[in-house]
Amino acid sequence: MDRRRFLTVATTAAAGASLLPQNAAAAEDELPARVRRYLDRALAAGSPSAVCGVIHGARTYVAGASQGAPTPNGTTVFQLGSIGKTLTATALARAVRAGATRLDAPLVLPARFRIPRKGPRRITLADLATHTAGLPSLPPNLMAGADPYDPYAHYTLDDLAAGLAETTLGSEPGSVHAYSNLGFGLLGQALAFDDVDAMLRRRVTSPLGLHDTTTTLRPDMASRKAVGHLENRPVPDWHDPVLSAAGTSIYSTADDMLRFLGAQLRPERSPLRDAIELTQRPHFTVDENLRIGLGWHLSPLPSGRTMTWHNGGTGGFSTCAAFSRKSGTAAVMMVNTFSEETSTDARPVDALTFALLGELDAT
């Protein structure tokens, strides 16, 4: 397996609408039966275990399934992957709403970090949050000395400074959408240099009550954590001291993700209302099937409503979360295996989450 592709497998964000069912299946009377059907499909696709949570109107439901004990539930800890970018985007939006910065503010880091340029305009915070900065997906020097099973763990701020000096932009800032873990890592450092994890906890996860959404695996979380798998073998978790704002080393649970999705559905009930609304607003249009908010992707559902979504993954986990504000529905699926899309098919966790949301949205 190509190692750079392995590091960016959860970063394809252009195929959303094509994965949705053109005709939603007939609604089942029982929400548990519907969720179980999708869990069974996740196991059939090769996941050792899976957990799925949904919000359907006033009802919230979580269930898990496994090919052997233990069966996960809403408190089982998974690595979240790139869904964590939506947390970083929310932190940015909070800073903007508070007047501490602007979306069009240029990216600024300490002097030893050379910010690459192409064309007359500097990279802005909005460019980073919409993947339009022209940056590559990964720093050019990330792979040097990397452990393929924990590829970000060795990377330091000194390495980032050296990597930026070697980085060239593929397009002028603000002109082309190109998904970038590096870009979101830099966004986190711009918001709270060398204090990104504490900043996310202070600005986003604590106010929203996401107590198990963190890069620090507490002892009580370790006892509830699923074991990640790659090609049917257990693998270690990912750790990332520098680019964690990209979601590369964050943990969460289905219960926490449903709290987060509930805040997205009803931001007026959230202490972060204004910031959440700003993240969901389209800020860049890729094509008729994909617009970009701050962190979030927006694609059309078969109903004509908008699906707001993000997927994620690390070396042993794959995740996807999606919601529809108009219909008041949301779905999240988390599995403890690495997976990737092929030239013809999406990752199973993405296809299943989108299909489930399509069903919920239609009923």
Model description:
InterPro entries: Beta-lactam-related, Beta-lactam/transpept-like, Diverse_Enzym_Activities, TAT_signal. This is Beta-lactamase family protein. Residues 1-26 form the signal peptide. GO terms for molecular function: hydrolase activity. Residues 36-347 form the Beta-lactamase-related domain. The protein has an eight-stranded antiparallel β-sheet, sandwiched between helices. A two-stranded antiparallel sheet has the order 3-6. Strands 4-5 form a two-stranded antiparallel ribbon. 52% of the residues are buried. The chain contains eleven helices and twelve strands. With 363 residues, the chain is of the alpha+beta class. Helix content is 30%, strand content 16%. The longest helix has 14 residues, at 31-44. The chain has one domain (3-361): Beta-lactamase.
Structural descriptors:
363 residues, Beta-lactamase, Beta-lactam/transpept-like, 8-stranded antiparallel sheet, 11 helices, 16% strand, single chain, Beta-lactam-related, two-stranded antiparallel sheet, globular, alpha+beta
List the helices and strands and how they pair.
Layout: H1 3-7, H2 31-44, E1 49-56, E2 59-66, E3 78-79, H3 84-97, H4 125-129, H5 157-165, H6 181-191, H7 196-208, H8 219-222, E4 229-230, E5 233-234, E6 251-252, H9 254-265, H10 273-280, E7 284-287, E8 290-292, E9 297-300, E10 306-313, E11 318-324, E12 329-335, H11 348-361
Antiparallel strand pairs: 1-2, 1-12, 3-6, 4-5, 7-8, 8-9, 9-10, 10-11, 11-12
Helix pairs in contact: 2-11, 3-6, 3-7, 3-10
